[in-house]
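Budget justification aside, the reviewers requested a transparent look at the raw inputs and outputs of the sequence design task funded under Objective 1. We therefore reproduce one unedited record. The lines immediately below are the C-alpha cells for a 650-residue chain.
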C-alpha cells in the first residue's frame, strides 16, 4: 500500500515573504522582524526513517531498488506492506515525527492507496488502524491523474475545458491580433505543459487542443465563428519561414517527453532511472529496448521521447577524418543539433575534420553557422510530424528583415503578415469563399483586391499622394504588394514631420484598412487628409512611446581656425501648385567665386508661391551647415544678421 500524509498546520502553507510583509505592515520594527525571519528560515530537520528496518519496503519489479518513502515539497509518501506489524511501525514513525516537529498529520487530507487484489475487509481494517478514511488513487495530483484506465482521452479532457474557458473569458474583451498572439503563445499553449511532460496525450486530444487555439485566434467574439484564412500548418512555422511561431501540440508533447528520456540516459543512477531500468530494461540498453505488450502509459510516452532522441544520436567525434558530414549521424560538441540535407553540391563529400580550424581540433564556428541550421528538440519533433517542413524552404523574401525587424507595432506586423499570406478578408477573398456575392470595392466599382485596396483605389491614391516623403510615391507602378511594400519602406519622410528615421508605410497601410472598415461597418467616412493626419499622429505617438536609449553623444573638438574666411550663400525657392509642395536650395561660394557646397530640401504643405519665397528653411539649413563646420563670418557680427546678410547677397 501507499500512504500519502498531509500536515494540518497552516504554518506550512504560508510563504516566508508573506510572513515578513505582514510583520512590517503591522508596524513591527525591522530588526525584530529580521530576527524572527532568521529563526524561521534557518531551521532544518533531519529524520532517520525505519532505522531498525521494521517497516518493510516494496519493489516495483524484481530488479528495481527497494523503496519505503518518497518526499516531494510538503508531501510524504510511505510504501509498505499491509500486515499489522508494518501498520504499527508506520503509526509509531508518524507519532514520533509529530512530537519532534510540533506538527500534526491531518487524516482528513491524507489518503491510502491499495493494490488491486487487496480484499475489502483488509482495506477497512488498515484504514481504521491508521485513522485515514480517504482512499487514494482517484482524482489528480499536481494536475495529473493518479490512476490511468483505458480511456486516456477522458482523463485529459479537462485540459481542453480549461483552455476554452480562458479563451471564452478573453473573447469578450475585443483583443487585437497582437494581444491574442501573446496570450495564445504564453498562456493558452502553456496550460497542458505539465501533463505533456509526464504523459503522451492522445492524438485526438491534441487535435481538440489545436482546434480550441485556432478558434481563439480567428473568432472575433464568443459564439461567432470566424474564417480560418491561414492553415495551421503555416502558422506553426517559424517567423523566419513565414509563420507565426505557434507550437504544434503533438510535436511539443514529444519534445517534453524527450527531456525525461534524456534524463534517464544521462543520469542512469537516479531513482527514476533505476526503478524503470529494473522493470523494463535491466538486461538491455535503454536506446534499443522495445515496448512490451503490457506496460504503463507513462513508459510508452518515455519511449516516444527516446525514439526522438535516437534519431539525433550518432558519432562521438575524435579527429573527424572518417565521419561524413552529410551521410553519417553526428552531434556538435557544444550544442544539440545535426545537419539537415540535402547537401549542397560543393560540400556533399565534406568530412567533419573539414569543420575544424586548420591543424587544430577546434570547431570553426563560422563554417558551422553557415552550413547547418541548429535544431532544438521541438523543431525536430515538428519536422517528424510535418515532413513537408523538413524540405528546404525556398524563400522569395526575407521575413525577418522585411517584416519582423521593421520598427512598428505588433498589431501592424500581424496585419502585414496577413496581407502577405492573402489572409486579409478583402472583397476578392470573401467572394472566393462564397461569403458575399460580389467583390466590388465600397468606394468604386472595381474588384477589391489587396493591390486595389491599398494602392489603386482612388482613395488610396490620394492618401499616398499626400504623404510627405521625398520623391513622392507613384501608385501606377505598383504591380504586387511585396515590391510596393519594399519601395514604400525606403521612402524618406521629410524633416518637418519629425519622423526622418521612421517609415510611414506601416501606418499608411493600417490607416487605409481602418478607414475601409469604418466605412463598411459603421458608415463613417474619413477623407484622405484625415487618414493621412491619423497615420502621422499614430506613428509619432508610437515613436515617442519607445523607451530606446540613444547612444551617448560624443563631443567633437574642432581645431581652432586661425584665419578668417568670407563666404557667400545664394538660395532660392520653388513651388508646385498641383502637389501643394515646394523646395529650397542653397550654394556656398568662397571669395574667389568657386562653389564649395550645394544642397536642396523638399518642403511639404506649401500653399502658395509667396509662402515658398518666405520660407526660411534654406536659412536654417545653411546656418546649421556653417555651425557644423565652425566657419567664422568676418563681414558680419551677429548670427541673425549673418543669416540676413547671406540672403541679401543672393
Amino acid at each position: 500500500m501507499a500512504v500519502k500524509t498531509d500536515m494540518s498546520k497552516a504554518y506550512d502553507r504560508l510563504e516566508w515573504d508573506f510572513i515578513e510583509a505582514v510583520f512590517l505592515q503591522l508596524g513591527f520594527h525591522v530588526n525584530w522582524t529580521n530576527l524572527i525571519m532568521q529563526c524561521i528560515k534557518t531551521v532544518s530537520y533531519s529524520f532517520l526513517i525505519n532505522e531498525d528496518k521494521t517497516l518493510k519496503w516494496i519493489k516495483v519489479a524484481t530488479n528495481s531498488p527497494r523503496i519505503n518513502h518518497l518526499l516531494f515539497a510538503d508531501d510524504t509518501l510511505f510504501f509498505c506492506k499491509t500486515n499489522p506489524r508494518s501498520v504499527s511501525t508506520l503509526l509509531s514513525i508518524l507519532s514520533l515525527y509529530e512530537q519532534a516537529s510540533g506538527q500534526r498529520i491531518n487524516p482528513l487530507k491524507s489518503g491510502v492507496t491499495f493494490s488491486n487484489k487487496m480484499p475489502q475487509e483488509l482495506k477497512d481494517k488498515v484504514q481504521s488502524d491508521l485513522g485515514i478514511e480517504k482512499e487514494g488513487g482517484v482524482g489528480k495530483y499536481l494536475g495529473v491523474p493518479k490512476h490511468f484506465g483505458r480511456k486516456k482521452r477522458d482523463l485529459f479532457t479537462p485540459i481542453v475545458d480549461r483552455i476554452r474557458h480562458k479563451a471564452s473569458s478573453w473573447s469578450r474583451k475585443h483583443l487585437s491580433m497582437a494581444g491574442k498572439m501573446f496570450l495564445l503563445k504564453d498562456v493558452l499553449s502553456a496550460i497542458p505543459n505539465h501533463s505533456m511532460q509526464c504523459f503522451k496525450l492522445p492524438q485526438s486530444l491534441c487535435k481538440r487542443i489545436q482546434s480550441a487555439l485556432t478558434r481563439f485566434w480567428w473568432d472575433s467574439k464568443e459564439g461567432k465563428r470566424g474564417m480560418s484564412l491561414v492553415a495551421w500548418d503555416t502558422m506553426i512555422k517559424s517567423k523566419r519561414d513565414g509563420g507565426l511561431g505557434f507550437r504544434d501540440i503533438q510535436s511539443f508533447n514529444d519534445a517534453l517527453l524527450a527531456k525525461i528520456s534524456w534524463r534517464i540516459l544521462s543520469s542512469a543512477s537516479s531513482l527514476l532511472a533505476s526503478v524503470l531500468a529494473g522493470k523494463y530494461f535491466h538486461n538491455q540498453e535503454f536506446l534499443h529496448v522495445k515496448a512490451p505488450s503490457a506496460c504503463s502509459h507513462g513508459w510508452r510516452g518515455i519511449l516516444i521521447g527516446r525514439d526522438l532522441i535516437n534519431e539525433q544520436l550518432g558519432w562521438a567525434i575524435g579527429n573527424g577524418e572518417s565521419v561524413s558530414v552529410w551521410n553519417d549521424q553526428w552531434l556538435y560538441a557544444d550544442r544539440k543539433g545535426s545537419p539537415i540535407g540535402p547537401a549542397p553540391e560543393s560540400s556533399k563529400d565534406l568530412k567533419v575534420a573539414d569543420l575544424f580550424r586548420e591543424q587544430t581540433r577546434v570547431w570553426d564556428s563560422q563554417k558551422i553557422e553557415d552550413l547547418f541550421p541548429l535544431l532544438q528538440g521541438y523543431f525536430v519533433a515538428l519536422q517528424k510530424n510535418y515532413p513537408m517542413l523538413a524540405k528546404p524552404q525556398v524563400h522569395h523574401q526575407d521575413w525577418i528583415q522585411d517584416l519582423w525587424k521593421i520598427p512598428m507595432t505588433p498589431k501592424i506586423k500581424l496585419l502585414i503578415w496577413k496581407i502577405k499570406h492573402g489572409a486579409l478578408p478583402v472583397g476578392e477573398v470573401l467572394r472566393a469563399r462564397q461569403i458575399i456575392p460580389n467583390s466590388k470595392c465600397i468606394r468604386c466599382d472595381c474588384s477589391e483586391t489587396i493591390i486595389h485596396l491599398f494602392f489603386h483605389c482612388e482613395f488610396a491614391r490620394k492618401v499616398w499622394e499626400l504623404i510627405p516623403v521625398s520623391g513622392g510615391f507613384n501608385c501606377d507602378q505598383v504591380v504586387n504588394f511585396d515590391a510596393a511594400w519594399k519601395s514604400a519602406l525606403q521612402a524618406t519622410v521629410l524633416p518637418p514631420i519629425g519622423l526622418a528615421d521612421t517609415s510611414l508605410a506601416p501606418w499608411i497601410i493600417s490607416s487605409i484598412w481602418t478607414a475601409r472598415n469604418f466605412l463598411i461597418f459603421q458608415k463613417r467616412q474619413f477623407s484622405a487628409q484625415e487618414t493621412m493626419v491619423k497615420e502621422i499622429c499614430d506613428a509619432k505617438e508610437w515613436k515617442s512611446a519607445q523607451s530606446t536609449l540613444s547612444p551617448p553623444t560624443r563631443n567633437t573638438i574642432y581645431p581652432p581656425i586661425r584665419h578668417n574666411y568670407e563666404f557667400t550663400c545664394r538660395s532660392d525657392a520653388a513651388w508646385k501648385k498641383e502637389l501643394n509642395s515646394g523646395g529650397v536650395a542653397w550654394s556656398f561660394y568662397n571669395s574667389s567665386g568657386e562653389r564649395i557646397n550645394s544642397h536642396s530640401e523638399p518642403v511639404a504643405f506649401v500653399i502658395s508661391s509667396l509662402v515658398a519665397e518666405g520660407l526660411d528653411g534654406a536659412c536654417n539649413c545653411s546656418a546649421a551647415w556653417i555651425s557644423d563646420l565652425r566657419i567664422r563670418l568676418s563681414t558680419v557680427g551677429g548670427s541673425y544678421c549673418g543669416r540676413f546678410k547671406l540672403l541679401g547677397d543672393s
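The chain has a mean pLDDT of 78. The first strand starts at residue 2 and ends at 5. Computational costs for records of this kind are itemized in the attached budget.
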